[in-house]
UniProtKB/TrEMBL annotation:
<protein>
    <submittedName>
        <fullName>Transcription initiation protein</fullName>
    </submittedName>
</protein>
<dbReference type="InterPro" id="IPR011008">
    <property type="entry name" value="Dimeric_a/b-barrel"/>
</dbReference>
Amino acid sequence: MPKYLISFPSAAMQVPDHKLAEVGRDAHAVIEEAKAAGVYVFAGGIDEDVLPFLVAADGTVTSGGYTWAPTLNGGFTVLELATHDEAIAWAARIAKACRCQQELRVFGLDA
């Protein structure tokens, strides 16, 4: 069954501070529904206080991410779903809970 990435960058979530607890509660409720439905793989957010590192094939480590790429941040949910329509429905539920649009992508199989 395909796995779908539902995500948003941090800047997309324009929520007043006094609403953050409500948004967190709503988002966690959707995740709990996904777990109960048996479609949850994992979810979380990038810790923006921890800098990324680039690791080369020879093991050389460089502080910072790709300089030419946009910063990777925000929230991510991975769900295993039977159809693209189901993925759209779950993305809409997450968008409503997070108060921002979600980007939907499907993972290619690694086999």
